[in-house]
Amino acid sequence: MQAKNQKIVVLGTGGTIAGESNSENEGLSYQAAQRSIHDLMQAVAGKSQALPEALIGFQFDTEQVSQIDSKDMDFDIWHRLALRCDHWLSQADVHSVVITHGTDTLEETAYFLSQVVQHNKPIVLTCAMRPANFKDADGPQNMRDALNAASQLEGQGVWLVAAGEIHHSQYVQKVHPTRLNAFDSGEWGPVAEMRDDQIYWRQGALENCPQNQWNEGMTIQALALPTEWPWVEIITNHVHATAKHVEVLLDAGVDGLVVAGTGNGSICQVTKEALLKAQTRGVEICLASRCNQGPVVQTPNHVFQIAKELNPSKARVALILNILSKKQSHNN
Ligand code: ASP
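YS: structure for the whole thing
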């Protein structure tokens, strides 16, 4: 049983979980980011609520880090959020951090935090597909599950808890625009399911999750300020692809390009040549796949670094950090 007087800190960033629509029957048209994290917590862990057993003895603190629709998430908020995670997780009495976040860019934030917040304590993100005042809002249950999971997870790791599932930040992605269970970890699957306040771990799933190989120079304190972070774009290979986007981006000073290639990271010849030219001019290239499952597997045909299991959005985060790391070691 968990020691008493441990704390779970809940950071609010906005999203549909904090959203409101005009009526309790309207679940798709609404304003995200309307309710404070304090109010969301009151709804699930207010004085009159019976909490899951695992949460008994925990205290909760809340902090509003931002109040946005996650489509508008930016580097400044990421920087602040990572610093706040670091601040709280440094404190001996804090067991874990829970973050409420919009679903649209959640997987990018989760992956980013997994790379720069270097503590052996868990961070759990949660979200909702329906606004807070919808008649069957999913936010309160997701929040309850997230707190429950946060109290039981140990050690490093960034997780998503939603729709009765726990996913690892490395694999999870949003796969459906409207469905209640909008997240999936592809062939890796969720690590656990949650029903009636109980966690059912999939056998061997936790042990098989990747441990972070943290780069010590990439702690959030060691990172340059967001204004210095590199400019990295994602381009896609498709039928009748051209080189025009690469040329325009190169002329505009792009620092890195992630290619959402077809299949196992294939790129049409004309785009590949433009990318090779961009590479000789110092642009970092990383190859991912536009397929939404499975890793890109290295073959002799791959002339650029590959993103392995990271989808293009997460590969972009990895490339941003990679470029920053190279710049920092160059300057030292
Ligand atoms: N647009 C919302 C957001 O990402 C969607 C959601 O939270 O479900 O903030």
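YS: worth flagging: The radius of gyration is 20 Å.
IM: good catch. Also The mean pLDDT is 95.
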